[in-house]
Design brief:
alpha/beta, three-stranded mixed β-sheet, Alpha-Beta Plaits, binds zinc ion, single chain, about 25% strand, globular
Amino acid sequence: MKLPICSFDAKIGVLCPKCELKLRNGELTRTDVDISFMLAKLVGKLPLLDKITLKRALEVDGEIVLLLGQGDISLIRSNPGFVEELQTALGRRVWLTEGESDDRKFIESLIFPARVMTMNTVWLPDGSKIMKVNIPGRRTSKFPIDLEKVKRIVKETRGIDLVVRFER
Ligand SMILES: [Zn+2]
């Protein structure tokens, strides 16, 4: 598995001086390191992890957000059950998206399996960005995604304010 820390460090659970320095100067966060250690331990149990790249990890309200490499989301979706097993192993809800994809794809991965109908970007005079996302259909109590959580994740990772609407 490709991690933001060296694979040797991940294996032994200790950071080398180089990664330690990255952590101290803010290139890596404590969460990046902790989640890297956790995932490295799970590779034996969940071999798909070995094909995945972790770019960054963060925690939002005690839930885990993994920013992955390009192509990783479709790889994971072609392996049903993987996300559930990962969540069980980590004991927490895990959100997955690709760290370097464009805003639309980034948000679509978080909202999956719901679909995005349209997405518009609005720039405010102060330079901040709002994205208006329309989801087809009516919002019911069965809607599977915690949209408030998605909004927080998008704000924390990309600095974008999301406005979600359901449209029929
Ligand atoms: Zn290292």
